[in-house]
From TrEMBL:
InterPro entries: Rhs_assc_core, T6SS_VgrG/RHS, TEN-like_YD-shell, YD. Signal peptide: none annotated. This is RHS repeat-associated protein. The lineage of its organism: Bacteria, Bacillati, Actinomycetota, Actinomycetes, Micromonosporales. Pfam families: TEN_YD-shell. Residues 32-370 form the Teneurin-like YD-shell domain.
Amino acid sequence: MSSQSATYVSGTSYTFDRLVAQQILGVTANQRLRVSNTYDPATRRLTNRQIDAENATTANSWDDKFTTEYGYDATGNVTAIAGKTAGARDQVECYSYDHLRRLTQAWTEADWGCTTPQRTGADPYRLSWTYDKTGNRTTQTAYGASGNTTDVYTYPAAGGAKPHAVTSITDGSGTDSFTYDNAGNTTARTVDGVAQTLTWDAEGHLATVTQGADQHGYVYDAAGNRLLRRAPGTVTLYLPDGTELKLTTASGQVDGSRYYTHNGETVGVRTVTGLTRQFADHHGTSNVAVAANGTITRRRSLPFGESRGTDPTWTGDRGFVGGTRDSTGLTHLGAREYDPATGRFISQDPVIDFNDPQQTNGYAYSNNSPAAFTDPDGLRSTDIVTKRVVKKAMGSIAKKPTATKTVAKIGTKKPVGGSIGRKAIVTPVKKTVGKSGTKKPAGGSIGRKATVTPVKKAVGKTGRNVGARGVSKPPAFRAIKNPSPSPMPSPGDGPVQNCAEQSNCNFYNCMPGSICNFNQGNPVPVPNPSPAPAAPRDGDEYSLDELITDIGIILAGAGIGLFLGPVGAVAGAVAGLGIVLMIRGCEATKSRCRFGSQ
């Protein structure tokens, strides 16, 4: 990576599985920096990251400047993060979790151990959290030298609207309050006695924050990326290449800065005063900076992103997981605004994954597990190992403040042009199944791909709908039968349901695509204006891709997976129905084969 005036990364080496092993920053002899990563050979988790500076007098000799060590439990939770300056360990952060991988305690120690919660080391802290069954944080306790302080979080009563929207937080000194619109966006909040009023645009982006006589405003491009930030006295323009231009309105002075990234991580920031190298932790928060003269600066944060200790002089305003820190107290993380003081976003996640029960809480940051998971773009968190794998395979999406992201699961596509004010759920691609020889639709093979359909944010009751999401749970559509199918509807679920939206309908004589009445608790077929397509008969001819496409919708409705064998055989089977569909010898995708029951 280079420009007309500087080379930022002069060399990069990778492991066999495409993880970054080592980077050389800079090109001038005796002024270069080297970053070396070590990974667990079995799990591929990052265990050590070391920053070395080239010796000022001896070429190709390197001095250890700063090292970060990581410890994990068998599940993959980060249990310890240790910092070492010039080889000497100065502090260890320790973490413990509950059975749902939610962070329950975090504390600091002077050396590696993490057995008994304490409060020692540089900028010490000790915190603990409790949660309810739906992932709402109920308390946070800070343990201090002069006593402990507990914040108590209050939510709507069980069965009420917006069950994940905190309404108040009370501690020994006062109460913070929060209100929301019908879409779940925060419209007003009072924190530490300071009142803010928030407005939102039609796409669900934060438009303004008014605090007394001061107003902050935000403008977004068509893709949902932040384009302008207006704050009292300044206007900042954000460009796609990492350039930020800040206008001071009183003087008319414009100051520019540019962030440089490599392999999805920030490696440097250039301003009018020169280049500063920045180095991130395992989830993208820059916490070590090296100035042009070699001076090293460290900054520390609490697990959910609050500053810890005294904030040092730092180039740029990017903070937790690379997000932009605003003077409102919020951090801009791609599609949403995040409040590190509460560990919550101020609006709901527009992407919902029903395979992850904790993620259905649309406000909690990274399933309440900020050390083991990361959510830099505000769209569904991922664990830190998955984040690295996706970045290497698809390019870094984590660092782009974009309004859309790829959900890393089989059979999903990136929602193109989806609005942030809506929820996105995975639904099967619908097509009309024609006779043999019908042209394959542009949507691809049914059972292989799915589109992400935006669903309006409606507030629903808990139990039937998923919390404040108000989105009825669809079947998880996969190339393989869903191991946890949606439960059958019970009486009162509505007089008419489309069988294609109920994963188990067909077990009660309700064929895919037909309409069933669930009022009595058992589906009864009723006249269908669009009859379900007939299954292929013995002797019908298909090419392999047509078979996958045309039969896929029939098999998917019955919970049957499609499997491609090593010689191109296609088989579908489901226990209990005794259905076995085989095509043998259909090795070429475009070849034509006869369909047979065996």
